[in-house]
Amino acid sequence: MIVGGGGKNSLSKIAIASSAIAFSTLAISPVQAAQLIIPNTTVLGTNVFSGPTFTVSQNFLPSDTLSVNVSGTVDIWAGTLAMNAAGIITQTTQPGFSVGQTIAAGSGATRPGQPSGSLLIGNSTLGFFPLFSANAANGLGSANPPTNLSLSGVPLSSIFTNVGFTGIANGTVLQFRINDINSSDNSGQFVISSPPPSTSTPEPSTILGLGVLGLGAFCQRKLSQGKKSKQDN
User: Fold this and answer.
1) Displacement of CA 230 from its chain's centroid (Å)
2) pLDDT tens digit sequence for 61-99
3) N or C: which end of the chain has fewer CB within 10 A?
4) Can you tell me the distance from the alpha carbon of 109 to that of 87, in angstroms, rounded to the nearest whole number?
5) Is residue 48 within 8 Å of residue 177, measured between CB atoms?
6) What own/partner pairs with CB < 8 Å and gap ≥ 24 does 159-164 have?
7) How far apart are CA 152 and CA 207, in angstroms?
8) What is the pTM (predicted TM-score) of this model?
9) DSSP 8-state code for residue 44
């Protein structure tokens, strides 16, 4: 097949335009965030000043995410004051305290001012932070707060809220703790599990970019075949 001058010019223009559009589309396609995987872990109510740890296996940016499920309660007052992982009271027989409220941890806790009994994550360099916010979704103000809490695709910057947080480096050791001023009368436990990483489908813009790139390659091939056929003749 011999491609005429007009057809050849058209194919050449299509190939160049397709390549430009494809590379532009692929360049602006969003990159999927990495997910910090937390191994299955049990944190005891007595893990106040130290607790179970895990080692981060790659570098993570503030925009990377975390997904986790936490079930159970810890009691911080000799069996009379139980909290969920957000530090919200789920059961109590102590006068002056009510289900659905929080109690600010006092001086001597890992995070004074944050809810007592809440589940913390961090280390001595990054600091320690509540894994869950004490909000209505996690039972604040409820007469029946949940004892199973979860996060799905939450940016690390929403958890590690210290100023200047730049991410978590490969090899960093993170620890879990219970926010309290002592451990002598604590009991209960939180059971932590991570859902498997999601396998998302390609973004529509990525599919479009690859399709247009394929069109450009097809046109280039036709041009090459035309040149070869002309040379043979």
Assistant:
1) 58
2) 999 999 999 999 999 999 999 999 999 999 999 999 999
3) C
4) 13
5) yes
6) 159/66, 159/121, 159/129, 159/131, 160/62, 160/122, 160/126, 160/127, 160/129, 161/129, 162/126, 162/127, 162/129
7) 26
8) 0.76
9) E
